[in-house]
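Q: How would the structure tokens look for this protein?
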Amino acid sequence: MRPVIAISLALAVLGACSKEKKGASSRDGVVAAWKKGGLEPSPMTAAKTNIGKDCASGTVNKIDVLVCTFPNAKDAKDAEDKGLEWVGDNTGASKAQGEMLIVVADRRKADPSGRTINQLITLPAK
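A: Here is the predicted structure in token form.
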């Protein structure tokens, strides 16, 4: 009887771990959150930047986005300033969310109210 309980607990733990990566803690989770929020992301393509080694870029509602994955939350948080360098003089934001860093830049002046930028940063956290 005890081995059955141990196996059940092990499966529950493994199931919980796999669920964590499906949410906004993965690049696909971030894109899914944007889509669920009514935004229209383009396909994300690998990007070489000085921000991180595992980054992808694209556009969402005509706003440039960069999503980087880091080994841990501290590294993602530490990269926020480098994200702001990527934004440059444009309106934008750089925010760590767990192991992910989301950077957005409105280079085309497509979001004068800032509403879309706000959604890009806040939707994956929900």
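The domain at 23-125 is CATH 3.30.200 (Phosphorylase Kinase; domain 1).

Residues 1-23 have pLDDT under 50 and may be disordered.

Upvote if useful.
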